[in-house]
Amino acid sequence: MTHNPLLLLLLDSSGLSSELVKALQKKDIPMAVVRSEAESRRWLEENQCQAIILAVSSLHSHSSFLDGLQDAAIPVPVIVAASEPSVNDAVVALQAGAVDYLESPISLNRLENALEKAGVSCQVASAGQQQAKTEKGCSSIIGNSSVMRQVFSLIKKVCDAETTVLVRGESGTGKELIAQALHYEGIRGNGPFVPVNCGAIPGELLESELFGHEKGAFTHAIRTRLGRFELANGGTVFLDEISEMSPMLQVKLLRVLQEKEFERIGGTKTISSDFRVVAATNRDLEQEVEAGRFREDLYYRLNVIPIEAPPLRERVQDIPLLVEHFVARFNRLRKKKIKGVSEEVLIRFGRYAWPGNVRELENMLERMVILAGSDALSVADLPERLLEGGTAPVERFEEIPGQGFFLNEVLADFEKRLILQALEQTDWVKNRAAKLLNVNRTTLIEKMKRFKLVSSSAEA
Ligand SMILES: Nc1ncnc2c1ncn2[C@@H]1O[C@H](COP(=O)(O)OP(=O)(O)OP(=O)(O)O)[C@@H](O)[C@H]1O
Ligand SMILES: [Mg+2]
Question: Is this model's pTM higher than 0.85 or not?
């Protein structure tokens, strides 16, 4: 059995025991932090961890999580840590299958004990750190095209630097994966990776998310809460959709970037936290600066090292690898045994513009795997928008990868694509397609046989 001893720490919004976070940071156990059950479910779909710590005020609003534990929807041991402990909660948690119930204040001893019960020993942590590094580093990013190889080499070059990185690219191009790789490949890889989506959290809340607040700072601040900058001590804060940050917060962020010091909202104590910032945007930040929506000084601060996540249409050579990766993943998740996709599907994929980039490909394959009628995906399984014609730009042609390639296969593939295109443009009337290609009808028919080209309407 493979172990990935990353801990998933679910801190609900009503409160968290700062001593717990501090204790975990002291133990150097690689962990991911999520803020809601929904976020934890998404995280668990894509990642693995060895145990979950559910750090909540009380179990009151978390019964569905415990149900998930009971019916084995949550695949790993869960430790509950409560800042407002009660005997009743302890009983409920343990009955639902939690391995331990920790009460605030949490001692290092009790925590170690609980982690041991959950199978996360501090010795395996270091092995786990190694594994987290390989699983969430560059190797989690699929791609072998020259543009992607440039991205990998840039990540390797700057992961250990402390400078701020700005990851840019269209939606769904893998900006978050790049940010993760920067973290896990680098010297901070054992520390926490703390993502914050600046576009998804409303302005006033974002400030307290980032900086934390003191007890009594505002009406609902019933206890002190650590902000994400503080949680990221020793690690990386990933500021996603940075262009969405309000002007007021932009000023505060600039100061934090310069000084690595800040105060919690309502507090006077200066907090220092050692974190690196990786930001991402799918907007043209220069344009935002020009329009006066984004501070120029902050822009320069963030854009020290820009990394461009290339759109999928500019690296169609990576599509077969991505397809293989996603089909394998959805086979695993959906308990299916799809062997792969047909050549013709790959050809269609290569021609499509992918406005939603890798995420669109991923979602499409998930749907295709779920709905598949047989163990191989064919054109019949494709969504409508991929069946509409569309021309294959010739300039998109294969570049020669570093390790070489098979000329005959590439030429055959090229030939096949062009023949398919000709057939589609002529509604599969062979005479007309042959004329378009300036070949004999018999040559065309022979090639169609060789490439197994049949019209999808004939197939259906
Ligand atoms: N090169 C890749 N290899 C494997 N999976 C990828 C790759 N690029 C993207 N993905 C997957 O595609 C999805 C979108 O990636 P990610 O969230 O990193 O994109 P993004 O650029 O942050 O998008 P957005 O701007 O919409 O937030 C994720 O599920 C991710 O795992
Ligand atoms: Mg993103």
Answer: no
